[in-house]
Amino acid sequence: MIKDKRSMNILVGADTRLIIQGITGREGRFHARQMLDYGTKVVAGVTPGKGGGSVEGIPVYNTIREAKENEGANTSIIFVPAKWALDAIYEAIDAKIDLIVCVTEGIPVLDMVEVYSYIKRSGSRLVGPNCPGIISPGRAKVGIMPGNIFQPGGVGVVSRSGALSYEIVYELTLRGIGQSTCLGIGGDPVVGTSFIDTLKLFEEDRDTEAIVLVGEIGGSEEENAAEFIAKQMKKPVVGYIAGKIALPERRMGHAGAIISEGKGTAEAKINAFRRADIPIADTPAEVARMVALLLSIHINEAWCKGCGICVEFCPNKVLSLRDDLKPRVANPGRCIQCGLCEALCPDFAISIEKIDEMVRVGRGERSEWGRQG
């Protein structure tokens, strides 16, 4: 049962009514056009002192409160330079905007600590900062991601890295595997929405069948997420961790992507996933292959009595038992689709759907996005 009132997506969808903060700047103007072209309902822009004008046919207001009252907006995206972005976030919170997405990079960590405390006492949700945004394919895009690589489907994607999530989504799309919602939480040390927050939303979303979690070095977000997945989630998750060859004490792109005093290494995060029986891929292409195999194994928990025969006799240890004695797909990459688990299950609770291992790109088929780079 979905707790969020929106159906068939999390956070953004057909009822999203978007304000663009900083719409008159170069980035705000460009992405306003991109989001409009995708079909997002962009109802207003805000730039102090420029109210009364318009950008791409979108009315511009001086304040968030004015834009919300006149246009019925419920969501905001921030394209404001770092030195003013903090004020933009506070203004959106005070105007009681439901969802605030902050793309801006370079907001000081101590400032974000204060914002985090403030927003948790409000009724708003912040995604970011330093994030690519959110997309529910075919419904709405609130962010900077290339919309043409996404397709509607049942796989949720959550990532600290925008570029890596694009690459993994592209691999999923090449295999014909669509996405329910893709969310970039941001690469800074302090962000408004965590991996765990997003995993809870995916677990409650009836249209998300499986989840891909894309992590990177630095912090403990991934370790916390692994523990949460092992204890709280029933939907299958595939993980990918970037930064295996990163040097200690050097920031690798994002402000939060740094190994400090031996903590936050890719090895530690991968080990946390393995201890939790969460399949972990080595490459973006392998993520897509694992998801395809994972979705081919159907487990009817209502029929399963928890006898463990499927786990015991699986030749490649693809399955493991959860604490409630129900099987989970722990190593989809090892599955050879032999069908032994299906044949031996006394409760008829497992079925295997044969998949075509050929990928369209292997047949010489490339999308427009693929040809461009």
Largest sheet: 7 strands, mixed
Low-pLDDT ranges:
1-8, 254-260, 357-373
User: What is the tally of helical segments?
Assistant: 12
Which geometry do the CA atoms define?
Answer: elongated
**How many individual domains?**
3
Description:
The chain is α/β, with parallel strands linked by helices and 373 residues long. The chain folds into three domains: 121 residues, Rossmann fold (3-Layer(aba) Sandwich), CATH 3.40.50; 166 residues, Succinyl-CoA synthetase domains (Rossmann fold, 3-Layer(aba) Sandwich), CATH 3.40.50.261; 56 residues, Alpha-Beta Plaits (2-Layer Sandwich), CATH 3.30.70.20. The strands form four sheets. A seven-stranded mixed sheet has the order 3-4-2-1-5-6-7, with helices on both faces. Strand 12, helix 7 and strand 13 form a beta-alpha-beta unit. The longest helix has 13 residues. The chain is elongated and about 70 Å long. The N terminus and C terminus are likely disordered.
Properties at a glance:
single chain; about 375 residues; alpha/beta; Rossmann fold; Alpha-Beta Plaits; seven-stranded mixed β-sheet; 12 helices; 18 strands; about 30% helix; elongated; disordered N terminus; disordered C terminus
